[in-house]
Amino acid sequence: MQDFLFYLFSAITLGGALLVVTSRNAVNSAVFLIVTFLGMAALFVLLESYFLAVLQVLVYAGAVVVLFLFIIMLLDVKGGRRRRLGGMSAFAAAIAGLLLVSGVVTLFTGIGERMTPATATGVGAQLHSFGYALFTTHLLPMQVTGFLLLVAMIGVIVLSKRLTAPTAPRGAAPAAGENKGTSA
Amino acid sequence: MNATDILIRFGLGLIVIVVVMTVCMYSVLAERKVSSWIQGRLGPNRTSIPLLGNIPVIGRFLTRLGVFQPLADGGKFLFKEDVIPAHVNKVYFVLAPVIAFVPALVTISVVPFGAYIDAATGAARTVILANVDVGILLIFAVASLGVYAIILSGWASNSKYPFLGGVRASAQMISYELSMTLAVLPVFIWVNAPGTPGTLSLVRVVEAQADWWFVLTQPVAAVVFIIAIFAETNRLPFDMPESETDLVGGYHTEYSSFKFGFFFVGEYANMTVGACVIALLFFGGWHPLPFVTWGDIAAWTGLPVNVGALGAVLAVGTFAAKVLFFLFFFIWVRWTVPRFRYDQVMRIGWRGLLPVAIANLVIYAILIALLERAGA
Question: What pLDDT, in 10s, does the model give residues B173-221?
Fold first, then answer.
């Protein structure tokens, strides 16, 4: 039963991810992204990491993709023309692909540290152990990630807010633009 | 888990769905009746069914009260022509009403309805479909998927007003979700005292309110949460996606018949879940009064009001009464407060509620830490 469910949800996740990148319509891509996240949440449930599963749905499927859709709809992104990859992009994509493959290969052949098989009660299973691990073992990575997000947020505000000279007449506050920046 | 077990679970789930649907149907009636009373009208008072409506005094009374009206409303939704306009994206157009409805029914499964003591074993039992440890997060997570119903219906309708409704909904829901989740954090900081295994279970929250209800100790959080719930369920004064005065019907302008009915009932189902969560988090769940639990009453009077079937019925009844009150509150506010403009909604969310919620969280985190130190 567990095996069957694993293959089912893996298929949903991978199929969804494939459709995200192949869909021509941006809204379709976003919807398949939701399906992918839901599939991943189901995989977390199979690992008995309920907390991570719920977070996956709450943050990614429930909030991030809503913002994607908001932007897609606001800018009225039309699907259609497919641009060919430029030389630079193809080179970058090749490097990224190689890194991914080498990462996966390293994990499974054990050149680095071998992955420990998922135990019945993982770190993400219990809220208490999850929080404890986050604030002790993984404190530095968490802080760095938070700082990165802060940098990204300030960057968005700087880029999206047009800096006007003090003498210019102050128009109505650009409420929508501001919100996009702060919530992303 | 054997076959009978699954069958029992299935039956219980069915019962909950039937109860929730009935509550939804009669919420619609309550909406119409309460609005008419507020506006000095009579409201629906003509619909009657043969037999029951012909009983001399009672039948007339029930007819005047509009008790049979939901049947007529339901029939109308079922038998009217179901139009799918030619210019819509059919897949999302059909999918959206379902998405509007499903999250409410999923979230209700982790809502605890009451608690009692088993007469035979003396163990505490909870009336709940699925007692999961991450209860409140699961509700937030699944409920946050409900916004796709509005966004997708607005987009799939492929016409201007629904589209505007969908765009508004996406921005509004995200804005108020932040305040909503931040408002409940102090409650769970309080519940999860150091040394206890951490939990987000709603049952534990209610147990922690045996003395002080959280609305008494954390009134600011309660107010922020209730306002955010209004915004999340798209109820007036926050019904930007629908907003009849400027968007015709908003996201469901192009919908008719049964599909519109799904949106309509889905709104009330979401309201019901919202009312349940408000009652559980801040208003003591199934405890009858602040400082008084059914256990206390049993101790004072010597009657077994917290044991067995009687205990379960009393606890669930108390909880149901609170939920019904909050459903009434939703309706009461809708017919009292005028709708905000869209920019006002955004300003209230980002410059009003969010700072208050963050300040509330910081202050209570410090306060609770100081209390812990004083206690230890």
Answer: 888 888 888 999 898 888 877 666 667 888 888 888 888 888 888 899 9
Instruction: Give the total number of structural domains in chain B.
Output: 2
Q: CB distance A74–B167 less than 8 Å?
A: yes
| Inter-chain residue contact B350 with A69, CB threshold 8 Å | no
Q: Are B154 and B241 in contact, with CB atoms under 8 Å apart?
A: yes
Structure tokens at B140: 């937030």
Chain B residues near residue A34 by CB distance under 8 angstroms: 145, 148
In this complex, do B197 and A179 lie within 8 Å of one another by their Cβ atoms?
Answer: no
User: Do the Cβ atoms of B132 and A50 come within 8 Å?
Assistant: yes
Q: How far is A132 from chain B (nearest CA, A)?
A: 10
Burial letters A81-117, b for 16+ CB under 10 A, else e: eeeeeeeeeeeeeeeeeeeeeeeeeeeeeeeeeeeee
The minimal CB distance from B198 to the residues A128, A175, A179 is found for A128
Cβ contact, residue pair A73, B199, below 8 Å: no
Pair B246, B168: CB distance under 8 Å: no
User: If DSSP codes are grouped into helix, strand and coil, which group holds residue B124?
Assistant: strand
Is the same domain home to B286 and B196? yes
* Domain of residue B134, residue span: 84-375
> Which residue among B29, B50, B79 closes a domain?
B79
**Whether the Cβ atoms of residue B249 and residue B242 lie closer than 8 Å to each other:** yes
Task: Tell me, yes or no, whether B62 and B115 share the same domain.
Answer: no
Which residues of chain A neighbour B141 with C-beta distances below 8 Å?
54-55, 57-58, 61-62
Phi then psi for B217, rounded to 5 degrees? -85, -25
pLDDT at residue number B121:
77
pLDDT in tens, B35-54: 999 999 888 888 888 877 77
Question: Residue A63: its chain B contacts at CB < 8 A?
Answer: 144, 174, 177
The residue from B79, B105, B130 where one domain ends is B79
Distance to chain B for A177, nearest Cα, Å: 11
Which CATH class, in words, describes the domain spanning A1-78?
A: mainly alpha
> Which residue among A66, A67, A128 sits closest to B197, beta carbon to beta carbon?
A128
Q: Do B187 and B57 share a structural domain? A: no
Contact B28, B36 (CB under 8 A): no
Per-residue pLDDT at B195: 66
Query: Is B211 found in the same domain as B121?
Result: yes
**pLDDT tens track, chain A, 184 positions:** 788 889 999 999 999 999 988 888 888 888 899 999 999 999 988 887 788 888 888 888 888 888 888 888 777 766 556 667 778 888 898 999 999 998 888 777 765 555 555 554 555 456 777 777 888 888 898 899 999 999 999 998 888 877 666 654 555 444 444 444 444 3
